[in-house]
Amino acid sequence: xxxxxxxxxxxxxxxxxxxxxxxxxxxxxxxxxxxxxxxxxxxxxxxxxxxxxxxxxxxxxxxxxxxxxxxxxxxxxxxxxxxxxxxxxxxxxxxxxxxxxxxxxxxxxxxxxxxxxxxxxxxxxxxxxxxxxxxxxxxxxxxxxxxxxxxxxxxxxxxxxxxxxxxxxxxxxxxxxxxxxxxxxxxxxxxxxxxxxxxxxxxxxxxxxxxxxxxxxxxxxxxxxxxxxxxxxxxxxxxxxxxxxxxxxxxxxxxxxxxxxxxxxxxxxxxxxxxxxxxxxxxxxxxxxxxxxxxxxxxxxxxxxxxxxxxxxxxxxxxxxxxxxxxxxxx
Length: 331
Hints:
The chain has a 4-stranded mixed beta sheet with strand order 7-8-12-11. Strands 1-3-4 form a 3-stranded antiparallel beta sheet. By secondary structure, the chain is an alpha+beta fold. Helix 2 (20-34) runs antiparallel to helix 3. The protein is built from 9 helices and 12 strands. It has helices at 8-12, 20-34, 42-59, 62-74, 111-116, 126-138, 160-165, 247-252, 311-323, and strands spanning 101-105, 152-158, 167-176, 183-192, 201-204, 220-226, 233-235, 238-245, 254-260, 263-269, 278-281, 297-303.
């Protein structure tokens, strides 16, 4: 089934030759604008936020970006369908047969992403297949021997708010038989548990491929992909926040307000704080489990220099250079 091509560079509003830093800044700007927590039109903002995250997911990853750029060069002129030689989704090498194509809805990712950058492929338990083949041989040439359904995998985009509090997501699954073109759809709910970390697989029993000969259906596994956040980076249950300081704040010390997933806290910047220094705020990260424990928040200091100076500011810097005894090259 053809899918629409996604122009991720247009989504982020950057040129194809944009640097990693330009892509990062474009994402942060758009993510702040369309974040569902602050947008007035939450429904439309949520869809736009997902689109922005998907574009950032691909373009911020060098391997995915390279694959995407190569894909764009081979894309069909009408902008639809996979490039030559692409394998259709849902193909299973087991028994040399073709399974149904599977299309997800409600996972936060488009069909385009699922097909070329997501999970989407079906897992195969070869021990089970061997036993099934044995049963098939014992049953003679009967093609209806019992065969459990294959597993189906996909990605699900999860926000930090969902990691904090958990959620119920409505997922739709559309199966298309590539031989007949017949389609069947179903909708069900999936629970995102608090503390769900990047890469965790959420098992949905019986929502995989259909079994044969009375055998049970396979399972659906949704792999958690954390939505990029404009304020935080995640490492398991710990969060990292980049804090920009003026030179005098780093030298003299300061008290600044930094965001957390549940609000904001005041952080004391010690005098003489160096660029790259990390300040630990205990218990302000993500949940680690059902016991209420949380990881930590690390505030990473970035000292910013003024890009332009007034005449008065330049005079003050010149006076400081003449009176200060500090020499970093003498250390």
